[in-house]
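Quick illustration for those who missed Monday's session on complexes.
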Amino acid sequence: MSNQIAVGIDLGGTNIVTALITDDGAVVGMASRRTDAQRGAENVVSEMAESVRQLIEKHSVPINDVVGLGIGAPGPLRLREGMIHRSANLPGWQDVPIRQWLQEKSELPVQLENDANAAAYAEHWVGAGKGAGDLVTLTLGTGIGAGSIIDGEILRGHFQNAAEFGHTIVELDGRPCTCGQRGCLEQYASPGNIAKYAIEQIRKGSKSSLGPVLKANGAFDSQAIAEAALAGDSLADTIWDEACRYIALACVNIQHTVNPEILVLAGGMSKSGDFLLGRVRQHFAAQSWKIFDDAPRIVLSELGGNAGVIGAAGLAWKAHHNGTASINFASGVRSAE
Ligand SMILES: [Zn+2]
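Prediction with zinc ion bound:
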């Protein structure tokens, strides 16, 4: 039993990360290769299966010791059908039956999950919210991904697409979002968008120490904004603080809808550590209600960029323990031993 292992895959628009994960969440081995999404979904799935095969071989794991495979993929997904419906990060993909294809190519039971949900599951399983049954993760990446764990289970909702907190509207008739709505949280608080906003302000003539950086490099990221703000740059501080206010607003709304014990901040912006956490906590305290003490503990991710791949494997372990890990071939069903 102790030699058993689960495979996690984090399918991103840029990279496919594959990892071997033990039953207590330890990473035994990890590999990464580029996602060549333009070559089509079936080729990418073959690459994924090949990456799994190579990693298992490299670590001399007998195939019978592999309890299953979990994949975290960008959504929206059709989870019941095991499909990627479409994805901004995987251009041209439409209703790709990734679970079935990967089962056939890997001959392993496959669990498909939204990547943000997989990351939330990992933080609940072995990360910043270990032991907490009720947890929400906000992944402040290119956009804002979110996952919600309630009583140890991923919150899905009727359409299997719950917890899209990045697309909760924080400004009526606000900035247009890539999703078709206006005023989405991720337009005001994701690292990519605050960098875009700062660049716009500088191009319009706002004075900032980031001006010369923009001139030299043509761009900068949210980390540069945090550093400039810490160094006393007034424009950078205003923009960073505003983003933290919007994140705090989202945290208050999550407090009242999901009522989690822990709220994990993850993704690129969380690399700024206490400068993010301190501001968000401060604005949360100012905005949150005063009539009942049910504020979540707001913390930073402990798993960083590995949360997705660890969580995906964690879901393969969960299915294995629950006895729901099986492969449906045209010829019949095989349960993983
Ligand atoms: Zn949106």
